[in-house]
TrEMBL record:
Class of this enzyme: isomerase
Protein name in the entry: ATP-dependent DNA helicase Rep
UniProt lineage: Bacteria, Pseudomonadati, Pseudomonadota, Gammaproteobacteria, Cellvibrionales
The entry's keywords: ATP-binding, DNA replication, DNA-binding, Helicase, Hydrolase, Isomerase, Nucleotide-binding
GO BP term, pick one: recombinational repair
Provenance organism: Mangrovimicrobium sediminis
Length: 665
């Protein structure tokens, strides 16, 4: 507390009504939240279990929980809720499950599940092209985030394309219901709808929650904002912090206007602005301020730093994307060697996930430890999806999506005709596929197929009984053995190594569940839904990453974080700003993304670009990003500009590496 500046202290101590802390990057907004939680517990006599803090990512939530734990010490922080909006929503849904008409063991669908479902509906019911599923799922998500219900979407639809979307939404929602399933957006939407319909339930939650704190407020969507307003009610125990210049999730329904809306909805709102930046050196900060001055703002703010001017910013022009990867990695090795420090002090940021591939190869080749956040998520891997589908089906026999995914994994000779006949029957009598197996008879389908379906169902029932009887994890392990899942993986993999990696992913998943159940004393069902929200796995991956790995992530994922040395690659037109945003004339959001990237850096910032880049098998010319031209030019040091021969650059990179290697012996 003594470290805080007077404004920060004011924000921490103000508890008489709702408070908005509005401030630029690195000014200590997140620090205010952490300190305030401790203050509320220690000085205001509010018990930790009456306080909830909402952050944007699991990683941020985890860090905050740790920091508060340290500040408070002992068991004083016990019962404190620090979570993402989705986790908070899940908590409410779990508690109010019956009221919401959900059966025990409900499933949570991710984006891929959603797309599979929509594809199915499009093809089977509308005879439409399944390729549109991705777009439609995105549209459905927008509707949900804007609190538009399926019937309303249908009523408002204009034109056949929009109508198809709205109809798909309607059917999608019905199918989710039938499957006893929710998607990610429902985790927020359902609680808000429930609270609207049942003031008594809302009152119970309001009485339980005495103080709510929200980080990264600029990226809340309409549903999330409503949830905040509902939970707070008249009590006014609310602190939100945000920076409209860092709003980078408009495409996911975020509404930076929510910052302004607060003032209207809470007339007594106190606003505190923070202006001192504690993160970055003067030149980095100046670059960020100058860049973002090109945007229009909701609120004016100016940031200054006492950390001295620091090094100039570097702009590295490379021959092509390979050269870019080579140079960045060579530089990091070189820099670390000369300055000491750790690989974890370096972050490489980029606009799109695909940009990480060459970097990964290069880092592997040079034996530099690295950690990739996001990317191909653990849950997108086939074997993980399979096992998750089994788990979902165990808990929720009505989860048809899960059923269809694994009916033939490993192969059970359940042919398409059998499954189709089953599906038709289930549709006709309005029940799930699993339920249909018990009701269908051989007049409706082939005898042998039916026998296999029954065998499958009986087997699953047996596993389910074993899970219910006690040791869920042991039952899951024996299920995997029983169906020879590992042999199946081996037969499906191109090499032994691939097979082994996949098996270890499955082990990792089951071990993770076990740990979660042990630590938090929850049942298999809850452990699984937490797992779906990534909680545990991200944690384990982060831990495995440790401080000794170069951090690779998208600009979006870097929000809220800081690193001594930052490289932003692909500072080119059509990459940053992204082509689609140029086409849509939505440059401001891209500029904010660049602003987020620049303000992650504490001591040094290097921006890289390629002169040529391969795209769809063709080499195309690239232009430096317009954002480079918007930075204070006197503070930039160019390297490898046009007049340098590209070959010389590549050579220089290689020489640096060779030199370093000989140095290292
Ligand atoms: P962002 O907008 O990127 O989320 P932020 O406003 O949340 O940034 P923090 O991450 O809370 O900023 O703080 C940035 C850095 O400044 C952290 O390293 C933090 O420890 C440090 N810091 C914050 N307040 C102070 C202070 N009063 N004295 C010294 N250091 C501080
Ligand atoms: Mg922050």
């Amino acid at each position: 507390m003594s470290q805080l500046n007077p404004r920060q202290r004011e924000a921490v101590r103000y508890i008489d009504g709702p408070l908005l802390v509005l401030a630029g990057a690195g000014s200590g907004k997140t620090s205010v939240i952490t300190q305030k939680i401790a203050y509320l517990v220690e000085n205001c006599g509010i018990r930790a279990n009456r306080i909830a803090a909402v952050t944007f990512t699991n990683k941020a939530a985890r860090e905050m929980r740790e920091r508060v734990g340290k500040l408070l010490g002992g068991g004083a922080s016990e019962g404190l809720t620090v979570s993402t909006f989705h986790q908070l929503g899940l908590k409410i849904i779990r508690t109010e499950r019956r009221q919401l008409g959900l059966k025990n063991g409900f499933s949570i669908f991710d984006n891929q599940d959603g797309q599979a479902l929509v594809r199915d509906l499009l093809v089977s019911e509308h005879g439409a092209d399944g390729d549109q599923a991705g777009n439609i799922v995105q549209r459905i998500s927008q509707w949900k985030n804007d609190r538009v219900l399926p019937e309303q979407a249908v009523a408002a639809a204009q034109g056949p394309a929009e109508m198809l979307c709205a109809q798909a939404y309607l059917r999608y929602q019905r199918a989710l219901r039938a499957y006893n399933a929710l998607d990610f957006d429902d985790l927020i939407l359902l609680p808000t709808l429930l609270f609207e319909e049942h003031p008594d339930i809302l009152e119970r939650w309001q009485n339980q929650l005495h103080y709510l704190l929200v980080d990264e407020y600029q990226d809340t969507n309409a549903s999330q904002y409503l949830l905040v307003r509902q939970l707070i009610g008249m009590r006014g125990g609310l602190t939100v912090v945000g920076d409209d210049d860092q709003s980078i999730y408009a495409w996911r329904g975020a509404r930076p206007e929510n910052l302004g809306q607060l003032q209207e909805d809470f007339p007594g709102l106190r606003v505190v602005k923070l202006e001192q930046n504690y993160r970055s050196t003067g030149r980095i900060l100046n670059a960020a301020n100058t860049l973002i001055a090109n945007n229009s703002h909701l609120f004016d703010k100016s940031l200054w730093s006492e950390l001295g001017p620091g090094e100039p910013l570097r702009v590295l022009q490379c021959a092509d994307e390979q050269d870019e990867a080579t140079q960045v990695v060579a530089e990091i090795i070189d820099h670390k060697l000369r300055k000491g420090g750790r690989y974890g002090d370096y972050a490489i940021l980029y606009r799109g996930n695909h940009q990480s591939r060459l970097l990964e190869l290069e880092l592997q080749q040079q034996q530099v430890p690295y950690h990739l956040s996001g990317g191909t998520s653990f849950f997108a891997r086939n074997e993980v999806k399979d096992v998750m589908a089994y788990l979902r089906l165990l808990l929720n026999p009505d989860d048809d999506n899960a059923f269809l995914r694994i009916a033939n994994v490993p192969r059970r000779k359940l042919g398409a005709t059998t499954l189709e006949a089953l599906g038709q029957f289930a549709n006709g009598v309005h029940c799930s596929l699993t339920a249909a197996i018990g009701r269908v008879d051989s007049s409706q389908m082939n005898e042998a197929g039916l026998a296999r379906l029954r065998e499958f169902r009986n087997w699953l029932d047996g596993v389910r009984r074993a899970v219910d009887a006690g040791d869920g994890i042991a039952a899951v392990r024996s299920m995997l053995r029983d169906m020879n899942y590992f042999e199946w993986l081996r037969s499906q993999s191109s090499s032994r190594e691939v097979a082994e990696r996949r098996m270890s992913n499955v082990d990792f998943l089951v071990d993770g569940l076990q740990r979660l159940m042990g630590e938090d004393e929850v049942g298999l069902d809850e452990a699984i839904s937490r797992m779906v929200l990534r909680d545990l796995l991200e944690q384990q991956e982060e831990e495995a990453a440790g401080p000794e790995s170069v951090q690779l992530m998208t600009l979006h994922a870097s929000k809220g974080l800081e690193f001594p040395h930052v490289y932003i690659i692909g500072m080119e037109e059509k990459l940053l700003p992204h082509r689609s945003s140029i086409d849509e004339g939505n440059i401001d959001e891209e500029r904010r993304l660049a602003y987020v990237g620049i303000t992650r850096a504490r001591q040094s910032l290097t921006m890289c670009m390629a002169r040529k880049r391969r795209q769809f098998g063709e080499s195309i010319d690239c232009e430096p990003s317009r954002f480079i031209a918007e930075l204070p030019q006197d503070d930039l040091r160019w390297q490898g500009r046009e007049d340098d021969a590209p070959e010389a650059n590549v050579k220089r990179g290689q020489e640096t590496l060779a030199g370093l290697k000989s140095l290292l012996g």
